[in-house]
């Protein structure tokens, strides 16, 4: 079978690339359905982009690499595509855009765009071998119990990273990249909950509150969630991408910085109340009850018993709570994979390998990882479009 372009992976980036390729295009995936990570994202409503997307929202060994693709396909261009397909959407917080009804609408939209571009999709298809014969890529694939030999002028690696292996993630793109001489940077789980030994926060499981979490020089003001295994919630997922094993996370439980003055005012009017009672007006009661054991804070006595110095020490402790995780939940629950195929071997404008003409790398497979909140989908759309347009130009 001869095609112009063979795309490995029917995820967000792969389908978007196929929708922008001319010529004959074949997309293969081992899954039963396309866009499975799209379907489950955002609680089933797909946080499909973020209107505040900037290169600064991405991690990479080369922080400049993502600028070209992101600059040539904006969030509003994807929104226009969504609206053209009649999909209703809304903004939640921090620029995050979601479908009103279901993430399946985005998958259906991508399939429709692929069909419009004339791309074929083979699901439940296994890749057993890939090579280059000097003039084209040759792939041996198995579908419906039959082996097919596919010859393609262009090959696109869009199989993602290692996150969520239960959905079939394998790191296949890394193996193929190495086969063709591309380097792969060290990978680890990103946007992932933290774990702590001996069920440290088990008694607080289900408790959530806003905070400022800091790790590796990055800070995020979002919600944190205590779990049986440790800490989760948007704030923790965000800093997990910057955290290094063995280092502490700093948690600020008073991110607005108003607690000291508020407690002083309460002392004047409610001084006979217990300190813990007044703190419970600002924090979940279960957290207040657990703070002495968790932080070593002495929360005894009435509010009137607390001097300004004592209140200042209390608030400083709550604003600089140092917690050292035992680890993370790993790829099992990670939303993304940090690291990946080294950008040094890829051209930022076209996403084509510098030394392997016709080989393209897009989406999560490459060493570009976004923040939580729709940024990784925007990278998938932008990198897929960049590669698709480059392939179209190459075929013309």
Largest beta sheet, briefly? 7 strands, mixed
Coarse shape:
elongated
The helix fraction, in percent, is 25-40%
**Secondary-structure content class:** alpha+beta
Quaternary organisation:
single chain
The end-to-end distance, rounded to whole angstroms, is 21 Å
Explain the overall architecture.
The chain has 396 residues and is an alpha+beta fold. The protein contains twelve helices and 21 strands. The chain has helices at 12-19, 36-40, 67-72, 75-84, 104-117, 172-179, 234-240, 259-270, 275-279, 285-295, 308-319, 375-395, and strands at 2-8, 25-28, 47-50, 58-59, 89-91, 96-99, 120-122, 125-132, 137-143, 146-157, 188-190, 194-195, 208-215, 218-226, 230-232, 249-252, 321-323, 327-328, 336-338, 359-361, 369-370. Strands 1, 2, 7, 8, 9, 10 and 20 form a seven-stranded mixed sheet that branches. Strand 8 and strand 9 form a beta hairpin. Helix 1 packs parallel to helix 5, helix 1 runs parallel beside helix 12 and helix 8 (259-270) crosses helix 11. The longest helix is centred in the C-terminal third of the chain and has 21 residues, at 375-395. The protein is elongated and about 80 Å long. The two termini are 21 Å apart.
Indicate the topology.
Elements: E1 2-8, H1 12-19, E2 25-28, H2 36-40, E3 47-50, E4 58-59, H3 67-72, H4 75-84, E5 89-91, E6 96-99, H5 104-117, E7 120-122, E8 125-132, E9 137-143, E10 146-157, H6 172-179, E11 188-190, E12 194-195, E13 208-215, E14 218-226, E15 230-232, H7 234-240, E16 249-252, H8 259-270, H9 275-279, H10 285-295, H11 308-319, E17 321-323, E18 327-328, E19 336-338, E20 359-361, E21 369-370, H12 375-395
Parallel strand pairs: 1-2, 1-10, 2-7, 10-20
Antiparallel strand pairs: 3-6, 4-21, 5-6, 8-9, 9-10, 11-19, 12-15, 12-18, 13-14, 13-16, 14-15, 16-17
């Amino acid at each position: 079978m001869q095609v112009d372009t063979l795309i490995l992976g029917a995820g967000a980036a792969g389908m978007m690339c196929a929708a922008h390729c001319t010529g004959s295009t074949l997309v293969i995936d081992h899954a039963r359905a396309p866009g499975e990570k799209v379907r489950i994202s955002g609680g089933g409503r797909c946080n499909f982009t973020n209107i505040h997307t900037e290169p600064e929202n991405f991690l990479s060994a080369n922080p400049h690499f993502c600028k070209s693709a992101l600059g040539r396909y904006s969030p509003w261009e994807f929104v226009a595509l969504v609206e053209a397909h009649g999909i209703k959407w809304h903004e939640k917080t921090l620029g995050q855009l979601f479908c009103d009804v279901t993430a399946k609408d985005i998958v259906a939209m991508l399939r429709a765009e692929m069909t419009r571009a004339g791309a074929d999709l083979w699901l439940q298809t296994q890749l057993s071998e890939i090579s280059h014969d000097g003039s084209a890529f040759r792939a041996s694939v198995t579908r419906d119990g039959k082996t097919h030999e596919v010859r393609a002028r262009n090959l696109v690696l869009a199989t993602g990273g290692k996150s969520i292996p239960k959905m079939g993630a394998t790191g296949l793109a890394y193996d193929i990249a190495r086969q063709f001489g591309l380097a792969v940077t060290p990978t680890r789980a990103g946007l992932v909950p933290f774990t702590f030994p001996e069920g440290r926060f088990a008694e607080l499981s289900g408790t959530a509150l806003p905070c400022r979490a800091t790790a590796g020089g990055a800070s995020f003001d979002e919600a944190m969630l205590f779990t049986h295994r440790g800490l989760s919630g948007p704030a923790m997922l965000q800093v997990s991408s910057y955290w290094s094993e063995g280092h502490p996370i700093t948690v600020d439980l008073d991110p607005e910085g108003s607690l000291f003055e508020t407690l002083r005012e309460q002392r004047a009017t409610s001084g006979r109340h217990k300190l813990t009672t007044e703190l419970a007006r600002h924090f979940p009661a279960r957290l207040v009850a657990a703070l002495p054991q968790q932080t070593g804070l002495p929360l005894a006595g009435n509010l009137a018993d607390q001097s300004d110095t004592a209140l200042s020490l209390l608030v400083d402790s709550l604003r600089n709570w140092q917690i050292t995780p035992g680890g993370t939940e790993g790829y099992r629950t990670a939303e993304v994979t940090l690291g990946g195929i080294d950008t040094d071997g890829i051209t930022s404008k076209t996403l084509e390998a510098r030394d392997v003409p016709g080989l393209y790398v897009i989406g999560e497979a490459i060493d570009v990882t976004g923040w939580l909140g729709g940024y990784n989908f925007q990278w998938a759309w932008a990198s897929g479009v960049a590669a698709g347009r480059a392939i179209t130009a190459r075929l013309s």
